[in-house]
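Dear colleague,

Following up on yesterday's call, I've attached the two folding results inline so they're easy to grep. Please treat them as preliminary; we haven't cross-checked anything against experimental data yet. The first protein's sequence and structure tokens come first.
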Amino acid sequence: MEEPPPYDRFRSHPEQQDLRDSVHEFARDVIRPAAPEYDEKEETPWPIMKQAHELGLDTYSYGEEYGGGGVTDMVTQMIVTEELSWGCAGIAVAINATGLCATAIQQCGTQPAHSAIEPRFCARRRNPEDVADLLELEIQVKVEEEHEAFSLA
């Protein structure tokens, strides 16, 4: 098979295109119209975050075995983030916030940490009461100096 020219090496897969279209539709129909109001009031967009959660847009990067979407490749994650940010960067950050935890847990977490934490993030319905429950999580960091690494337990 012939190598494509350098400018044509990245082509998204049909699944990525479908996901991009779905997220773009959500950003266009839900996020963009509401963004100015939430920005003006300086309020957290809980209704939008609930809708995003129902679509799995805040849990897609968690493992399927924990209730997430199982999307682990960075290109697909960037596609989702780009489309959410097209709607409103601030709301996109609010929706993607648990993804920061997902990355740390996936890369450094022990199996007990995965089992204890990831399902809790995936089950949240994204309202103030649910977030308070997540704040009670206790995470221990074990520094492994001989390997210059750490793990989350």
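Below is the second protein, in the same order (sequence, then structure):
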Amino acid sequence: MTTENQSHELETEDLGQTMPVDVLDNEQTLVMQKYNIAQASINEIVARSREVKVNGPEDKEGYKKAKECLALLRTTRTSIEKKRKELKEDALREGRNIDAVAKLLASPIPTEENRLKAEVEAVDKYYEDLKAEKERLEQVKLNDRIDTLKAAGMGWNGSYYAIGDTISIDAVTLKLLPDDKFNEFVGKVEAENTRIKEAIAEQQRKEQEEKEAFEKQKEEQRLEAERLEKQRVELEQQQAEMKKQILNARIELLKGLGFVDSNLNSLTILLTTEWYEEIPYTLYHSDITVLTADQFKTEYENLKTLISNSELYKKRQNEAKAAKEAQYNARVKELYAMGFVERDAKDGFVFSSKYDDLYFLAVLPGTLNAFDEAQWTNYINDTIKQREAIINQDAQIEKENAERAEKERQARLSDSEKIQEFVSGLAEQMKHSPKALESVQYQRLVNQFDTDMEKLINGLIEALNG
């Protein structure tokens, strides 16, 4: 049993468990007395236990007290549990006896109760069936009346049955209406239905007449619209043909100025201006067509002036272009005369070292026409100096190469070959003596020298070989 006075539980921080608070009703107090132990005694045992603490394995005294308190707590708890089971068994035995006596007392009642209940329910069902049959017949009658009213022209609008603007009846009134009143009401409905049908027929007749009149008017309007459309198309065709003739005449005039067809809808002519050469000037057919006669005349005269100026500009540009080409060719010849060759579009004209591909002098094509005569003369003079530097460097390299080759050749000669080469050289030098030494006497001395030197050389060779 749960009441507001039932004992509550209070959390104990030290033990991590709960203890009952002394708030008990009278019945619980009587039960408490049957346990033969006071709550104060239990609280005292727990309080003493809280004072006991074991400070590690070496604390023998604390360990002994802890075991004693533990045994006392366990004994107290088990004695309470044992007494609880004894008290609860007595209560369960008393409950079973109460249930057995109640069952014995009530055993004769169900049979008689069921008998009387069946007889009462049979009478109730009889009257319920009578009521249901009465309601069914009333519903059948109501349905027949509804069918009669519907056949007479009435309809349900969601709340009641109605016909016209003045005759209506709800379902409850229809159900309770006496037969003679219902027949009289049906007569009114049929009369109203006849009136409504005649009014509808008259309205339909008038609408048909209006429809036929409208269709006739519509057909007349259609025929008139077709006639006006035909006139409009013919007028547009005439205007289009006239515009076409005007356009063709204007195109022929423009072609006489030099314009040509660029596509189906435009004419183009290439014009030269003071700054640009042969830029397209385009006239669209649509722009030519919309001009009035005076506007086209003005445009035509302006175009003649524009084309005349274009031819003048073109002549000047051609002359300037020819002058530039002549200047370019003359300067190219000048470069060729200096030993330059044309390499490619990137380097242009180059004069290269014979011994170092990376050492070359380049004149870009754009440079040829970039300078006036004075600037070009200065540029060529600087170029000549750089060219002479390359030539001098190549000459120095050739000299060094010849000297190195001579040294290598001398190193490969034998002693006899060196002596022969020395004598030959000396003799060659004597052959080229000044004219003052070309007397007969001098020639005899030279011949005697050649003979003596030959003997000397042969002796040296034999000595070297021996």
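For the second protein, one point worth flagging: The CA atoms of residues 423 and 454 lie 9 Å apart.

Best wishes,
A.L.
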